[in-house]
Amino acid sequence: MKIGIFTDSFRPYTSGVVRSIELFSREYSKLGHEVYIFGPDYPMLHPPKEEGVFRFVSVPWPTMPDFSLPIPFSAQLGSTIRKTGLDIIHSHSPFLLGRLGARAARRYRLPLVFTFHTLYDQYVHYFPFAEKTSKHVVQSIARNFSNRCNMVVAPSQLVVNYLRRIGVESPVVNIPTGVDLEEFKGSSNTWFNDNYGVKPDEKVLLFVGRLGKEKNVTFLLKAFQTVHEQFPETHLAMVGKGPQEESLRKMAKQMGLQDRVIFTGMLPRQTIVHCYASADLFVFPSVTETQGLVIGEAKATGLPVVAIRAYGPAEMVYHNDDGILTDPSLPAFTEAIITLLRDRKLYESMSKRALENVTQVSSRRCAEDMLQVYQDLIDDKAYATRKKKPYRKKRSTNHNCDKQV
User: The domain 181-360: what is its CATH number?
Assistant: First the structure.
């Protein structure tokens, strides 16, 4: 199978979307399929040339300098698609290159899949114009784009329900991004001790993600202030960068926590694996995640998780089994962290269950589910072509496909 992936973000930029594309593509290749990536260039970062990766001229996003906007035009696109002989197109954005992929699918009569990675209406604070109006506009764009697709992939069942609520009528299948379990074998459990002077008897609460408003990180810092009052030997490690990093540093200093909050900035992938392995508890306050892949990665090193019960995290954490889900209140979130720090027996039980439960979302298993969706669509398309009838979206009962309208 030859798979064309159209995306508005790709490495060296880091995000959950990029990580998802990398994981699925790696598994597809291992299973003998060919993957072609159509993504942005990052002129300031000078990404290396990679086989099977086609870059589009891009410009920096005005409010996110580390993110580039690809210009969705290339005179060579048609010849490239014909040369690669794509069987299916998978768009990972309803904008720019995602829409270009949709136009290519229509022109070359290929099935079109779209993964709804992001609650786009929760990111409009990055738009340099009216936020309230922007929220309605981006929701409409996402809905209309989804309804042009032969299949929409949602990383969680709660996102399936969300898509139905906003008016998506195309078939929707729930397939999360998997976790590469092999990646976590042999990771160091002393990374914070070796690099930040954390003492062996001190505890590290870990957050991995973008330091932006949508991740609710100021909420996390306030929770840690209360936790630290009761457990002075704790540290909070924030792995990642983003527009709120400087304000968070100032906030930590004002709280007197500058020596207890670790800001690592962006780290290489293998180093992030060591961060998980050398932490004691994963804390995740975001309420905008469609999945929360970092939760699965934390569980792969046996970290219990405290997260707010919202969208993806509500399905990535098994409440009172491998972690604790809370309502979005500061007292509830803080108390859950304190409970796991205080109750060693409960902590060890959840740590064991985290390692067991994460196998249900291995990257190989999720990739195989996605490949089956591709094959069903290709087979249906071939049948429709032979019969000289327009392609009809098949509402299969396989793959946990949602049938509601």
Answer: 3.40.50.2000
Task: Report the Cα 308 to chain-centroid distance in Å.
Answer: 16
Helix (H) or strand (E) holding 272: helix 269-278
Residue 84: CB atoms within 10 A of its CB come to: 15
Domain range annotation of the chain: 2-178+363-402, 181-360
128-147 pLDDT, tens digit per residue, is 454 555 678 888 999 999 99
Q: What's phi and psi for 305, nearest 5 deg?
A: -125, 140
Asked if 46 and 16 touch (Cβ cutoff 8 Å), the reply is: no
Supply the pTM of this predicted model: 0.84
Q: Phi first, then psi: what are they for 156, rounded to 5°?
A: -150, 160
What kind of fold does domain 2-178+363-402 have according to CATH?
Rossmann fold (3.40.50)
The answer to whether 3 and 90 have CB atoms below 8 angstroms apart is yes
Name which residue leads in pLDDT, 128 or 318.
318
- Spatial separation of the C-alpha atoms in residues 106 and 371, rounded to whole Å: 21
Sequence-distant (≥ 6) Cβ neighbours of residue 108 within 8 angstroms: 81, 82, 86
